[in-house]
Amino acid sequence: MTEYRSAPTAELSPLELYAILRLRVDVFVVEQECAYPELDGRDVEPAAIQYWATDDSEVVATLRLLTDGPDRRIGRVATAVAARGRGIAADLMRGALAACEGQTVRLDAQSHLAHWYARFGFAPDGEEFVEDGIPHTPMIRIP
Asked: What residues contact residue 37 under an 8 Å CB cut-off, 6+ apart?
């Protein structure tokens, strides 16, 4: 049974935070072969909120919600290989977007996933760019 949770980073137990960060490293650094600073300092910002889903106590999907000036920013959306295609990340997105009601939300989508983010009301907002060898599209969702 999949369970969904969210909490400010500061309220996570060390084991919860470890499991979230481990999944992100597994997906972004190992699977996508991108050697980059996954731990970028933004997770410890006072307003940072982590969203995650577990199956049998194992983190299978995650994303983070940040504050960027007057806007909100979703990032680090990751799903374990074995959990893909089950709509878990979509459920996390809906939860994070519900917390952003009335606010502009931005994200940088891996370009091959821009259509997935469009399902949630995001539209391209700028030129495509390459980060760590992967094309990205800046996107925005205006209330």
From this structure: none
